[in-house]
Automatic annotation (TrEMBL):
The keyword Protein biosynthesis does not apply. Belongs to the HEBP family. This is Heme-binding protein 2-like. It comes from Plakobranchus ocellatus. SUPFAM superfamilies: Probable bacterial effector-binding domain.
Length: 214
């Protein structure tokens, strides 16, 4: 049962390395996927393949992003630094010296550490506005780069509020357990944390964890 092993390995690594506690998480309502979760900002144009009371399965086409990465024990240690680098890129720290519109979500790929020091790699992404996909403007900071994610199907669980690392990890654990129970094969070595709101949005905040379908 390789798939169960993968999910179990992801969970073990997250539990051991990122320190989540498998606290009881109240179930959350799952949206139909039809409303505008990006609140007027440009965001990747996914299609909903399936919806259950536990997750939404989405297909994302190839998507272009500006990204930066860091290694740390948890996202909280490096989140601000990564965000600032990307924010500077859209605020003019780029080869054309132009302002670039903010998009949604801020998507952070986490590759939980397996090593003895348990450090994980975090790669934070802002989607490039579609107008720049053909000819992305290069960043001036060498720690910032343009990347594309391949087409992928992802299982999504969402929750509200101001998300902490623990909130993401608890929801990841719940989603991972639900998928494992359904014997669904997933990519077990990384996951995504997606946040749709800036710090000054106080209501209807949306956060998601994504696990990629195998
Ligand atoms: C959609 O979900 C249902 C219920 O879990 C499942 O039986 C079906 O195979 C799923 N379809 C796809 C395309 O994942
Ligand atoms: C960032 O990613 C590159 C390419 O994968 C890697 O070589 C580098 O070590 C990473 N930097 C950090 C700080 O994790």
């Amino acid at each position: 049962m390789a798939l169960l092993h993968h999910v179990a390995a992801l969970l073990v690594s997250v539990t051991v390395c990122l320190g989540t506690e498998r606290a009881g998480v109240p179930p959350v309502a799952i949206s139909s996927g039809s409303r505008d979760i990006c609140k007027g900002l440009e965001c990747p144009q996914f299609t909903v393949l399936n919806t259950t009371d536990k997750w939404e399965l989405r297909h994302y086409p190839l998507t272009k992003w500006v990204a930066t990465n860091a290694t740390a024990m948890n996202k909280q240690e490096v989140g601000r630094t990564m965000f600032r680098r990307l924010f500077q890129y859209i605020s003019g720290a780029n080869a054309a010296n132009v302002n670039i519109d903010m998009t949604a979500p801020v998507a952070t790929k986490a590759i939980p550490g397996q090593g003895p020091n348990c450090e994980s790699e975090f790669i934070m992404h802002f989607m490039l506005p579609f107008t720049y996909w053909q000819n992305p403007i290069l960043p001036t900071n060498p720690a910032v780069y343009i990347v594309q994610t391949p087409p992928m199907d992802v299982y999504v669980r969402h929750f509200g509020g101001f998300a902490t690392d623990d909130d993401y990890l608890e929801n990841l654990a719940t989603l991972s357990t639900d998928l494992s129970t359904a014997e669904i094969a997933v990519e077990g070595s990384f996951f995504f944390m997606a946040g749709y709101d800036g710090p000054y949005t106080f209501i209807n905040r949306r956060n998601e964890v994504w696990i990629v379908k195998q």
